[in-house]
User: Which sequence fits this backbone?
């Protein structure tokens, strides 16, 4: 039978008030002095009040104490036992409260079990996450270092490419200089070729002239020899004349002597002999002069012959020299033509090189741009990677915190004593 | 006026009157005479006559040396003599008075006197003196 507590209180109050009224009516009837009646009635009313009060309060407080004890257990985390009230005839709200608390315990048990399981899983997961994040952090550190190296490498590359660009530009300028030099060389070689041709022609003409001179000198030499022989002949003739003059002179002397021996008769003869002697002396003097002239002429012709011999030697040497010069000019000509050909090919090559060098310059400038972009990009990547590293570290610490939180949760949950019975009956 | 033929021998200048000379020859070969005295070079064949050739400087003990092949043939009635000389000059026409004033000299080596002529001194030979001297020498040497 279910009686509400409020109804119980009402019944109690009604009983107390009724007992007071009853007492007030009963006491005068019992014979108690008047002055005591009031007192007894009051005492009786108090007594009744005390009895009911004690009864009710005991009834209430016993259940409420059980519930309080159970609630205290729950609050201490002991979910192993359910609240069991004493069996009463009149079931009131405490029974509901106890049932509700038992439902709460069941719910808590389920909840705590689920929380515990979930916290364990979270703990495991967060530990895995933490180690993964640590790994990722390390990897991202490595990536960061690598990218910094790449960045430095890219900067170095940019610097190197700049250097290469300078060098290639200088090379291009050098090639242009080479091309212009080759141009000049071609012109010079052509001039050299012309000059060498002229020189060769002149050397040929000189050889022809030299041959003519040689023939002339040969003729002169022959003529000088012939002349010398003629002069020798004249000398011998003059010797004869000299001898004749001496003989004539002697004859004239002897004639003069004969004339002197003849005395006056030989006077005219003496004059003639004297004249003959004078003529002979004159002839002798002339012959001497001729002899002197012949000697001079001989010396001159000997000198002329020596000069001719020297001239012939000199001309021979000159001819050899001119032959050498001619050969040299031929060699110069060959080399100059060779030089011209080579200079032409150098010119063509260097002209094509100029184009190639320009292409190279453009390509290297493109490379330089790309390398600069690479450097910039790798710096950006480096920055991003560092951020990522920070994030990873944050993630690592967060997962560690999460793990700690899960641990704390488990610890918190472990306060609850689950016991073995679950969802058992409520008495 | 007399005519003088100047000539040199042994470095000295001598002279002879043309009247004392028979002929001047220059190409007669001299034949060597064995045993002849120092002053006799040899002999020549002149127009079939064998004549002795005298080297006067050698004869008088001066300058023994080769003479040129010019020879003066002296004219002498007794015996012809040939003088070997170096050179013969042109005939000089000298005034007789000038010739007579030539300085006399001591009788010596055939020289009769000295004649000054145009800055030179000509030793005039005398055939008589020369002949006497040569004969004297020959007698002294036993020839």
Assistant:
């Amino acid at each position: 039978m279910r009686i509400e507590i409020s109804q119980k209180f009402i019944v109690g109050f009604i009983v107390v008030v009724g007992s007071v009224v009853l007492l007030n009516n009963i006491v005068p009837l019992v014979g108690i002095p008047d002055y005591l009646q009031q007192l007894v009635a009051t005492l009786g009313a108090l007594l009744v009040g005390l009895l009911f009060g004690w009864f009710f309060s005991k009834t209430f407080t016993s259940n409420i104490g059980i519930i309080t004890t159970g609630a205290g257990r729950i609050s201490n985390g002991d979910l192993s036992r359910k609240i069991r009230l004493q069996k009463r005839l009149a079931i009131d709200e405490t029974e509901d409260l106890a049932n509700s608390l038992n439902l709460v315990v069941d719910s808590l048990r389920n909840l705590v079990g689920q929380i515990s399981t979930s916290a364990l899983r979270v703990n495991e997961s967060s530990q895995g996450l933490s180690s993964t994040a640590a790994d990722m952090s390390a990897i991202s550190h490595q990536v960061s270092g690598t990218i910094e190296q790449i960045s430095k490498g890219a900067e170095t590359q940019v610097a190197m490419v700049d250097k290469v660009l300078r060098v290639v530009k200088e090379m291009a300028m050098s090639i242009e200089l080479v091309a212009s030099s080759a141009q000049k060389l071609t012109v010079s070689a052509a001039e050299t070729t012309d000059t060498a041709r002229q020189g060769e022609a002149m050397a040929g003409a000189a050889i022809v002239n030299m041959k003519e001179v040689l023939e002339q000198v040969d003729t002169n030499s022959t003529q000088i020899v012939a002349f010398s022989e003629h002069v020798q002949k004249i000398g011998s003739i003059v010797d004869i004349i000299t001898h004749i003059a001496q003989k004539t002179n002697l004859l004239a002397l002897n004639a003069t002597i004969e004339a002197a021996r003849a005395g006056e008769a030989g006077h005219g003869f003496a004059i003639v002999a004297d004249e003959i002697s004078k003529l002979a002396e004159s002839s002798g003097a002339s012959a001497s002069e001729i002899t002197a002239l012949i000697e001079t002429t001989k010396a001159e012709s000997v000198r002329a012959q020596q000069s001719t011999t020297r001239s012939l030697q000199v001309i021979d040497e000159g001819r050899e020299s001119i032959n050498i010069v001619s050969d040299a000019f031929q060699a110069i000509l060959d080399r100059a033509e060779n030089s011209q050909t080579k200079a032409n090919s150098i010119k063509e090559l260097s002209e094509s090189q100029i184009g190639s060098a320009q292409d190279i310059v453009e390509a290297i400038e493109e490379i330089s741009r790309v390398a600069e972009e690479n450097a910039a990009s790798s710096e950006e990547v480096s920055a991003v990677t560092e951020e990522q590293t920070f994030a990873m570290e944050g993630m690592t610490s967060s997962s560690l915190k999460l793990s700690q939180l899960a641990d704390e949760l488990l610890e918190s949950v472990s306060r609850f004593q689950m016991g073995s019975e679950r969802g058992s009956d409520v008495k | 006026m007399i005519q003088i033929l100047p000539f040199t021998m042994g470095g000295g200048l001598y002279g002879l009157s043309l009247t004392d000379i028979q002929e001047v020859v220059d190409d007669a070969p001299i034949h060597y005479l064995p045993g002849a005295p120092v002053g006799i070079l040899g002999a020549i064949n002149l127009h079939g006559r064998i004549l002795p050739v005298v080297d006067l400087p050698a004869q008088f003990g001066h300058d023994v040396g080769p003479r040129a092949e010019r020879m003066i043939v002296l004219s002498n009635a007794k015996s012809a003599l040939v003088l070997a000389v170096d050179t013969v000059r042109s005939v000089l026409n000298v005034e007789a008075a000038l010739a007579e004033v030539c300085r006399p000299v001591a009788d010596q080596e055939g020289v009769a006197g000295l004649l000054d002529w145009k800055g030179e001194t000509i030793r005039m030979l005398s055939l008589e003196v020369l002949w006497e001297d040569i004969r004297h020498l020959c007698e002294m040497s036993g020839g």
In short: The first helix of chain A runs from residue 5 to 30.
